[in-house]
Amino acid sequence: METLLGVIKTALPVFLALGLGVLCRRKKLLSREGIDTLKKIAVDICLPAVVIGAFATAEYTEKSLILPLVIFLAGCAGLWLGKVLCRIMKMPGTLTPFLMCGFEGGMLGYALFGLLYPGESMSAFALIDLGQAFFCFTIYKALLAGPDRSKKDMVKDCFATPVVWGVIAGLLLGATGLYKWLGRVGIASVIDTCTGFISAPTSMLILLSVGYDLNLKSLMQKDTLKTVALRLGIMGSLLGIILLIHHFFPMLHPGAMVLAFMLPAPYVVPVFADKPQEREQVSSALSAMTVVTLGIFAVMCIFV
Hints:
This protein is mainly alpha-helical. It contains 13 helices and no strands.
């Protein structure tokens, strides 16, 4: 009975927030502009506060610093495997290989990790997301944007993202030891209070936005199911290799790693679709991946 209550306690807020998002769309309680504004508040204001707190309190050891590099290499491997297997399996769409790697940490990962492990530091997930961010803002985005995008524009876009500045601020506080020094003089608690207050609505706002955008009607299309199955195969294989490495060389939070590799591909992919049909195809695949992620999340609640 206790286990069941624990699962309900963890999973129910997620599905409730998603359901409210769907309800807001169907009943027109929020417009597209309104939900985009909430999403912007969550990603550009609340999430940077989460990231600052996570990186400021992270333990920086030689082993933990290897983790972002491992995630970066896994992203590169996933993209290469995606391109090869999509070609062999004759998967439709030029953007389909980009759905086979990377994960949506900002819009979903932090929210689910915080609900799954409420008593643990967010830094366990943040170090994984650091390698993901490095991959997404370099190789992934460069190939996704195409050859016409200049390096100067990509660097400019990267540093125009508030989350990136949150990572930089958190790293400066944590990796330099400044946060610990501020803790000794009593100032760190002020930072914790501020970041905690600003980041409090992050999960609700993000999950509400995800629910609003869920496209449930197109989940059972053949191409959508093939795309999701292929992603699960690729990401599951990479996860297995990383967990095997971890067995001999401990460097990560296994639960955070499983959650990260079961997340959907980055939600930014449809933005780069040139044709409406491909945009709809990619969006359908992302919706299906999100549903699968939530199913895996519900199962993880039983074992955590």
